[in-house]
Specification:
With 362 residues, this protein is mainly alpha-helical. The chain has one domain. The protein contains 15 helices and no strands. α3 packs antiparallel against α10. The longest helix has 33 residues.
Length: 362
Amino acid sequence: MTTDSMRTRLAAKLPMRVLQVAFGIAVSIVALTFALRGVDWPVAREALRDANYAYLIPAVMAMITVLLLRAIRWRLLFQPEPGLKLPRVFGVLNVGYMVNNLFPFQIGDLVRAYLLAQLEDMKKSQTFTTVVIERLVDVLVLFGLLMVLAPFVSIPARAAIPVAIVAGIVVVVGAAMLGMAGQRGWVLQLFDSLLRFVPGRFHDNFRKMADSTLDTLSVLSKPRILGLVVGWSVAAWLTTALVLYFVMIAFDLGLPFSAAIFVVVMTSFGYFVPSSPGALGVYHAISIEALVTVFDVDRGLAASYSMVAYVVFYVPPVLIGLLFLWRERFSLRQLTALASQQGSEDEVGLVGNLPDEAERSV
């Protein structure tokens, strides 16, 4: 795809993108308004003034540990790739999170998949498939944690039902991916049959994509790798809960560690809701409602806590991502162009239509 054709497509999609951004911002405003209703602002200001901010030091350290654990897990999905260095994977991962925090459309995962493929000369279908696997494992682990908490935490039906629906969909998709990983020959035979309905000039590209995707999925057929991926995922999410627990201690909420796990699960599923960059407003609404509804925390205190917790989650990946881009001599302007390009692609089309080395416009 040439630069001119890409610009034409971007121009054609601009009105729809503007509407999507406007809708996301509207959702964030509504969510924030809902979350902050009835807040006793003197109580909120007092909570911010009296918080023990020394606990934010271990909170930030735990957040960096979360990012490192996620990088270790992502690198595992490329087995065997002996030349893939953890520092680069760590940097690209943070660039993806940075994009989610700074740009609309929640396209950070697409950008990091493309960026790693570009930097490491990998197939884009390979990097994209690993991101899909990551997200499926994340949802399953989160749902598992919620099931463990269920006997000890009164989960509102309005929260449990949508989470169960999402988890059910992920279970079906995950089972399909596991089946594909163990039945490569049958899947390729079926794929070749379907290719009869596709114009001949696309056959080679689609077949290469299928081969690359199945190569990546093959890690799921290796019990050791699959166990490690799940193990690192559990460790990452429990450490994420530890981040929130330190912030809860800073605000003297007097809640157990299980409360931090519950808030992590609820806010993480909230990222499925379209909103402004960084899930601004949606994160605060879910966090506040979880604390007020389930744990009977004062709304003003919960609002102050959610503001600080959001900053702890938001800032580290942005700073690390910017540092990595600087080290790689990759400008923010180039990343903006890349993010805009990826925002114009459907997820299915992304893998097959990303420009090759000679066609890169960034």
